[in-house]
Amino acid sequence: MRKSRFIGILSIVLILAIALVGCGNTTATPKATEPAKKEFKVGLVTDVGGLNDHSFNFLANKGLEKAVKDLGVTKGVVESKQMTDYETNLSRFAQDKYNLVIAVGFLMQDAVEKVAKDYPDTKFMIIDSSITDRPNVASAMFKTEQCGYLVGVMAGLMEKAPAIPNALGKNTVGLVGGMAIPPVNDYIAGFIQGAKSVNPDININLKYTGKFDDPALGKQTALSQIAAGADIVFHIAGGTGTGVIDAAKEKKVYAIGVDADQNYMAPDTVITSALKGMDVATFDVIKGAMDDKFKSGNVFFDLSNDGVGFATPTKVVPKEVVDKVNDAMKQIKDGKITVSNKMPEGYK
To answer: What is the band of 37 on the pLDDT scale with cuts at 50, 70, 90?
Structure first.
């Protein structure tokens, strides 16, 4: 009796032991861990104007900063001190295995073509220059003749008397260009067409400084134009243009900014700015490259996709002028006005 009872208890213990061993061997399937996000590196090489040009280098970097914040890219930035730095700076990023290298400006075309050929596995973006024969180069192109036309209409109407109540009276504007290169001349060609379309007799004084990084020279050039009667000055000169705005402020005339909204530099002086969405273009190309949707060749930005435009005018610009500028913008979008990027005869 006792033996049978002992055997029964032993059997129960064995069964429980087996059950516990089975439970010990049963483990939950581990959750699949997400693969670590691969680092995406973007390098930006500025033109000689540097990041503080308040213009195209500044805007390109703004697009890169947005990509850092929104997309988590790792950035590198090199400011070129002279044009001979371009090839070296671009090559450095390629050698360091950056996924995308951005060249800011038309003047880097030769350097980008060479470095892109030397590093075919690296993707490149160039702003304001058309490179179509390299499968690893995207070219962001802007139809700035369109926004140049719009601010030209505004300037032309502001100078026209007596139709406009706040007409300035001298019927003269000054244009200060950095260099006579396509990205500069496109703006100028559009401006002249726009101003002449509403004010055929307007006097347009065009001067090139030959530099994008010399504010003192920009100021000197604008002061000479103001002394010759200009009461509006429009610069297309990068960092040199900051001096143009300083001259306008000092002499209490008006200025038109370029690329970015430059009103913050002199709120009572800069009545509007011709806008160029380089920050948007830079961000879009970075995102496309990250998503394996990189497209080589030309990508165009104009009024139809908000790639260009003009900044909200200050209160000194009469409403009827703003209305006419908006009407001109609509007509360009509708195809009723075609703006050429060819320099008008007599200007160079």
So the answer is: low
Do both 138 and 149 map to the same domain?
no
Q: Containing domain of residue 180, as a range?
A: 144-275+318-333
CATH number of the domain within which 237 lies:
3.40.50.2300
> Residue 72, class by beta-carbon neighbours within 10 Å (0-12 exposed, 13-18 middle, 19+ buried)?
exposed
Distance CA 143, CA 130 (A): 13
| Structural domain includes residue 312 | no
Q: 135 and 152 in one domain?
A: no
Q: Are residues 56 and 125 in the same domain?
A: yes
Phi, then psi, of 40 in degrees rounded to 5: -120, 115
Global pTM? 0.85
Look-up: residue for tokens 């370029």?
258
Scanning the structure block, which residue is given the tokens 């930005």?
A: 301
CA distance 155 to 325: 10
Q: What total of structural domains would you count in the chain?
A: 2
Q: Answer yes or no: do 266 and 232 share one domain.
A: yes
pLDDT score recorded for residue 61: 97
Name the DSSP class of 246.
H
Q: Are 245 and 255 in contact (CB under 8 A)?
A: yes
My answer on whether 327 and 247 are in the same domain is yes
Q: Among 8-12, 35-39, 51-55, 178-182, which is the least confidently predicted range? A: 8-12
Please check whether residues 46 and 191 belong to one and the same domain: no
**Can you tell me the distance from the alpha carbon of 20 to that of 15, in angstroms, rounded to the nearest whole number?**
9
Same domain (yes/no): 136, 218: no
Q: How far apart are CA 140 and CA 299, in angstroms?
A: 5
Sign of CA dihedral 43, 304, 311, 147: positive
pLDDT digits (tens, 9 = 90+) for 233-286: 999 999 999 999 999 999 999 999 999 999 999 999 999 999 999 999 999 999
Q: What are phi and psi of 120, to 5 degrees?
A: -65, -20
- Helix, coil or strand: residue 237: coil
110 and 199 co-located in one domain:
no
Residue type, 150: L
Q: What is the pLDDT of residues 88-142, one digit of tens each?
A: 999 999 999 999 999 999 999 999 999 999 999 999 999 999 999 999 999 999 9
